[in-house]
Amino acid sequence: MRMMGLDYGSKTVGVAVSDLLGVTAHGVETITRKEEDKLRRTLARIEELIGEYQIGTLVLGYPKNMDDSIGERAKRTEQFRDMLVRRTGLPVILWDERLTTMEANEILIESGVRREDRKRVIDKIAAVLILRSYMDSVREKTT
User: Can you give the pLDDT of all 143 residues of the chain as single tens digits?
Assistant: First the structure.
C-alpha cells in the first residue's frame, strides 16, 4: 500500500503520496480552508484521496520547536492526528518536520518559481519532503 504525507498548516494541508514500493514521493495537491478550525471538508478530501490512491499509512508533519519542545502548533497537529485516526482508521505517524517549509522554499527559489506561485505549492512540496524523509528513515532501518 502507498503512504500519504501531510503538511498540516493553519489554513492549508499539503498532500503527497508515495509510489507502491515506498521509494518515491510526489506532490498531489494543497487543500485550503478559510478558517483554521473548519476541518470537515479538509478531512473529507483527505479521505477521498486515501481511497483514490489506496493509502495504508499517513505520515503527518510534526512541527516541534527547534529546542525539541512541543508548542501550540504541535498540539494542534496532535489534535488533527486524532481526527485523522478517528475518521480513517489508519495509522498516523507524527514525523519531525522542522525546516521542511524553509527547504521547500529554497527548492522553489532555485527552480526559478515566482514568489506568488511559490505560495500555491510550498505546502505540497513540504509534504513531499516530510514523506521522503520518513521513507528514507524506514529504508535505512531495513538495510
Answer: 899 999 999 899 999 999 998 899 999 999 999 887 789 999 999 999 999 999 999 999 999 878 888 889 999 999 999 999 999 999 999 998 876 777 776 877 888 878 877 777 778 989 999 999 999 888 877 76
CATH architecture of 2-142: 2-Layer Sandwich (3.30)
Residue 68 phi/psi, 5° resolution?
Answer: 75, 5
For residue 113, give the C-alpha cell.
518559481
Domain boundaries, the chain: 2-142
d(CA 74, CA 86): 19
The Cα 64–Cα 8 span in angstroms is: 13
CB contact at 8 A, 95 and 62 = yes
CA distance 130 to 61: 6
Q: How far apart are CA 71 and CA 69, in angstroms?
A: 6
Nearest to 93 by CA among 1, 10, 23, 3: 3
**What H or E segment, with its residue span, contains residue 142?**
helix 115-142
